[in-house]
Backbone:
């Protein structure tokens, strides 16, 4: 068999394993729409630069995006269903598109989304699914909580522009630039101290737990710390990271990222978020994650060899 066709067959079988795993747990396959309105997407994700997106102009002068994120696309289509049925569990095997500055980049993703009536048991279920899919290859799953940084922001008198700047620097793990920026703005002493230690709030063990509790400044930060400490008990492969900031701004609870030893980037990313109607009158809790399918398959195959 031709090498390209053989690899295509291998990829298909691995993807089927992911899909079968989700089907066995009651998740329904769903394929999101290809395009999304630019204004709607950018208003929800102000930190993602326009030049990183694939912008399409229709004959009616409507500005659309070639699907930049699958969870965001699902929000628009699944929300009415979840609102009506109160509970909805879906999975997808699809592609997102980015502009890397040189060419159009296609990123294959598999993901699951659990919408409506999210409890701690729902969160644990999704985290265990992430662990199951990452297993067979040495991995770590880092877990954080948006409440820690959002609670920290509440102790500071920050503009929206400053908040977005801080989130971007934290997301990029730009330690030097973050230090310069927090020195340039007026922050309370205790808040500044937390920012300066933010990238050291990673790992596990009682020493880290004590440090985290000592840095708590309000109830929101305390709840976030206690939540992630509890989640670490699920698996020895779980590490805490209170500096996690996702690329998108819709997360509002636990967040997590999965890594393989042989990759220098995350292979899995997800967390809890809130689906809100366009008129903001109704909302639904949700939690899910996405996996970089090609990276996942490459690591799975390397381990088999």
Residues:
């Amino acid at each position: 068999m031709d090498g390209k066709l053989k690899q295509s067959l291998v990829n298909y079988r691995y993807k089927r394993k992911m899909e079968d795993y989700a089907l066995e747990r009651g998740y329904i396959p769903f394929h999101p729409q290809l395009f999304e309105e630019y204004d709607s997407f950018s208003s929800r994700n102000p930190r993602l630069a326009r030049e990183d997106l694939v912008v399409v102009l229709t004959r009616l002068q409507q500005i659309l995006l070639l699907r930049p994120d699958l969870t965001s696309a699902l929000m628009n289509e699944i929300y009415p269903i979840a609102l009506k049925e109160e509970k909805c569990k879906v999975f997808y095997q699809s592609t997102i598109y980015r502009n890397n500055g040189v060419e159009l980049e296609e990123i294959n993703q598999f993901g699951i989304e659990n919408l409506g009536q999210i409890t701690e048991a729902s969160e644990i279920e999704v985290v265990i699914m992430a662990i199951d899919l990452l297993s067979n290859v040495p991995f770590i799953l880092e877990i954080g909580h948006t409440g820690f940084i959002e609670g920290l922001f509440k102790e500071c008198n920050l503009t929206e522009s400053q908040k977005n700047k801080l989130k971007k620097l934290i997301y990029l793990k730009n330690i030097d630039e973050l230090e310069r920026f927090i020195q340039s703005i007026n922050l309370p002493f205790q808040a500044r101290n937390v920012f300066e230690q933010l990238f050291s709030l990673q790992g596990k063990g009682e020493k880290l737990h004590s440090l985290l509790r000592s840095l708590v400044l309000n109830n929101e930060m305390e709840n976030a710390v206690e939540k992630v400490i509890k989640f670490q008990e699920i698996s020895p492969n779980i590490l805490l990271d209170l500096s996690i900031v996702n690329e998108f701004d819709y997360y509002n609870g636990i967040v997590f990222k999965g890594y393989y030893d042989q990759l220098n980037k995350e292979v899995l990313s997800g967390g809890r978020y809130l689906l809100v109607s366009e008129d903001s009158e109704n909302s639904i809790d949700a939690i899910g994650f996405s996996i970089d399918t090609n990276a996942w398959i490459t690591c799975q195959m390397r381990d088999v060899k």
Notes: The chain is about 45% helix and 25% strand. The chain has a mean pLDDT of 88. The longest helix spans residues 3-24.
